[in-house]
């Protein structure tokens, strides 16, 4: 009422967003600045710590979570059990990824750093864009990108730690999420899809990632939903560990 002109311009902008195709996104523009950082084997201070402004931990190192010196003499299976047992009690997503599988994911992420993921909702799907930044994978909803552009905040970050990859043959992963937008089983569904699309042996599945990155005009968002439904991911969203489906 006090500023009808401002209201009108905002409504025009909103209508413009609604007219954009569902698959629309400005590749890589949404991820920018993250803020701040936060020994038994695990460090309580390094786990899922967020800043007072609710943003994610900056430079979240493996050493801030795990006492690397204490696990150096342990086998890969023992480390897997330690990691899994610890994080199974936490409200987060985690995984122990075989080195070969992560090698494939990492190689493909260099060529195709972003992708559109579909999160099943009660009615239909909500789309999220995942963007790699080093070994971190940041997600934010497509609507955030459409409305906020490069200032759109991350709502989920997957942290991958390759420090033990060469010696132990495993890569450790954990996550932080904005609980105002996502719960654990939803974050897990997105994390599982990273392996579905980036670690697949099925050329047609990975081709969707290539198309999204290099031939965006040919990309069909319904193909993502078709792959997701075919894989079975999303039918049963359970909290806890990321599956090894690929």
From TrEMBL:
Q: Which InterPro entries match?
A: ATP11
Keywords, sorted A to Z: Mitochondrion, Transit peptide
Q: Among its keywords, does the record have Transit peptide?
A: yes
> What's the main place this protein lives?
mitochondrion
Record flagged with keyword Transit peptide: yes
| Gene Ontology annotations for the cellular component aspect, listed alphabetically | mitochondrion
One Gene Ontology biological process: mitochondrial proton-transporting ATP synthase complex assembly
Per the record, the similarity remark reads: Belongs to the ATP11 family.
Q: Which PANTHER family match?
A: ATP SYNTHASE MITOCHONDRIAL F1 COMPLEX ASSEMBLY FACTOR 1, CHAPERONE ATP11
Q: What is this protein called?
A: ATP synthase mitochondrial F1 complex assembly factor 1
Q: Which organism is it from?
A: Cariama cristata (Red-legged seriema)
